[in-house]
């Protein structure tokens, strides 16, 4: 392995085995991977979540699932949500895994930067790139804690009991989003990234650091003092009773 190019592959640590098991459970429980699928695109920011997803999906191909091709799609830009990694670092990882990396660029500037607008553009770029590749299934690295945040944010902000769905069809682009990490908590992903050496700096977006999602995350941390299982319970409630409406970007 090249110095500075971390690759996580089996045989796993005990934590790695737990994460693969949780990922497999989500794939089976929600039928995230079609038995005849030949391509899956991954939204690859370069953070711990998307890289964990890349390594885990790469590992399970051909082992109870089709040996599908993986295409990684990375959106860069002067101001773009992500882990602050450069394209050369991600390209080196993808080359080691024999994964095709496609890069698209965000048009966001400091004057136009705003979470909702940026998120819409990033998704549009990812969907369009996936369609060009012929990949109708796109995996995102949203984990259990993301779902808990989304549920509370939608409840407080829009009076909607809506969390992240494990699988959602986007009509406008004829693609399906899947979230294979939906059962995995953020702490476990951080530990996994540290064990295998791909834990990098977090989002450097100046707007994202003061977003409503950050506020909700702090509220959840405050609640954990009194209700230690608040994140897992909200995420579970979201899967049971909440729905993330399939709105076209």
């Amino acid at each position: 392995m090249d110095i500075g190019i971390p690759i996580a592959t089996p045989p796993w640590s005990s934590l790695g085995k737990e994460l693969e098991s949780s990922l497999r459970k989500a794939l089976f429980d929600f039928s995230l991977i079609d038995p005849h699928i030949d391509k899956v695109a991954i939204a690859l920011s370069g953070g711990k979540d998307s890289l964990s997803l890349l390594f885990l999906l790469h590992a399970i191909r051909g082992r109870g699932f089709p040996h599908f091709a993986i295409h990684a799609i990375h959106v860069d830009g002067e101001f773009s949500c992500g882990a602050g990694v450069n394209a050369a670092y991600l390209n080196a990882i993808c080359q080691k895994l024999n994964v095709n990396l496609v890069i698209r660029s965000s048009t966001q500037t400091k004057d136009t930067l705003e979470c909702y607008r940026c998120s819409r553009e990033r998704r549009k770029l990812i969907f369009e790139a996936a369609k060009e590749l012929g990949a109708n299934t796109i995996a995102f690295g949203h984990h259990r804690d993301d779902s808990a945040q989304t549920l509370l944010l939608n409840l407080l902000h829009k009076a909607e009991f809506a969390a992240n769905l494990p699988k959602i069809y986007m009509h406008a682009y004829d693609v399906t989003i899947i979230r294979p990490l939906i059962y995995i908590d953020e702490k476990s992903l951080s530990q996994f990234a540290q064990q295998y050496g791909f834990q990098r700096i977090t989002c450097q977006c100046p707007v994202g650091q003061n977003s409503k999602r950050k506020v909700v995350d702090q509220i959840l941390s405050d609640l954990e003092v009194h209700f230690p299982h608040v994140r897992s319970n909200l995420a579970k409630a979201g899967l049971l009773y909440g729905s993330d409406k399939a709105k076209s970007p």
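The chain has eight helices and six strands. The helical segments are 14-29, 48-60, 87-97, 115-133, 144-158, 186-196, 212-224, 230-241.
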